[in-house]
Design a protein that fits this description.
The longest helix has 29 residues. Strands 3-2-1-4-5-6-7 form a seven-stranded parallel beta sheet, with helices on both faces. The chain has a single domain, classed as Rossmann fold (3-Layer(aba) Sandwich), CATH 3.40.50. With about 280 residues, it is of the alpha/beta class. It is about 45% helix and about 15% strand.
Length: about 280
């Protein structure tokens, strides 16, 4: 089968959000949406820390960043293991000496449904998709308090719209949304802002891999993009990255507790608009 090309290409421009030399942890930062976030932060002069389970993937992206004269770090960790978050934070502090923000992004839509799922797979999915959000935030909190940092949680439309056969992932994303609002309240006293970026149809290698499993990938892709009101195209990881960078920066100094949908209007606008 021929490779599907991205629906659109997007080059993020330097925004000068005053993030130079600030250290931001990005979980699941080696590929897809995480990689888009890492590239944007690096282009803004920040020091993104790629956290991923595969060192080869981490290093590949890190080398791409460094080849452009930009900064970055990487930590290998399996975040579904409870002790890993503390290891990540200790490693970052040892290497970079500070933490200015956390981007919780790692996770996977693993298809644990209600009818064919079970307790064990449901709980495993919550550990893969939600529990480490809490653990990383808790372990990073002393540094975030010290530096008046920010947290951005990446969430999915599945918590709002449902999808079918993905109970655990939908529940995890509902939890991500709830934690965003809860932490925004709890951390007000420290001046720490907490926001979320909600993703709908974003073109990533994982998305491409999924769509190629369908009987007619090209037709399905066309059907999906036809329902995205703004431009009839997929969101790019870099567009997610731009919003994340903004929410981490002082440019969004009075924004907290928000769930920002970067989706071309896919979730909330009338789908009829896409074909108007």
């Amino acid at each position: 089968m021929a490779m599907l090309l991205p629906v659109t290409t997007y080059k993020n421009d330097f925004m000068d959000l005053h993030l130079k030399d600030k250290v931001f942890i990005v979980s699941g930062g080696a590929k897809g949406i995480g990689a888009g976030i890492v590239k944007t932060l690096a282009s803004e002069g920040a020091i993104p820390v790629i956290v991923g389970r595969n060192e080869q993937d981490n290093m590949l992206l890190l080398e791409q960043i460094q080849e452009k004269g930009l900064q970055g770090l990487q930590v290998v960790a399996e975040l579904s293991e409870p002790a890993s978050s503390g290891y990540v934070i200790r490693n970052v502090l040892k290497t970079a000496g500070r933490i200015d923000g956390l981007v919780n992004n790692a996770g996977v839509n693993d298809g644990v449904g209600l009818e064919k799922g079970n307790y064990r797979s449901f709980m495993e999915s919550l550990h893969k998709n939600l529990v480490h959000y809490y653990q990383l935030a808790q372990d990073a909190l002393p540094e975030l308090i010290k530096n008046k940092g920010a947290i951005v949680n990446i969430t999915s439309k599945t918590a709002t719209t449902g999808q079918g056969n993905t109970s655990a992932y939908a529940a995890a994303n509902g939890g991500r949304n709830a934690l965003t609002r809860e932490w925004a309240v709890e951390l007000l006293k420290y001046g720490i802002r907490v926001n979320a970026v909600c993703v709908a149809e974003c073109w990533t290698p994982q998305y491409e891999q999924w769509i190629k499993t369908l009987p007619d990938p090209e037709a399905k892709l066309k059907e999906i993009t036809s329902k995205i009101p703004l431009g009839n195209r997929m969101t790019t990881p870099e567009e997610i990255g731009n919003t994340v960078a903004f929410l981490l920066s002082s440019a969004s100094a009075h924004t907290t507790g928000q769930i920002c949908y970067v989706d071309g209007g896919y979730v909330h606008l009338d789908r009829a608009l896409a074909n108007a």
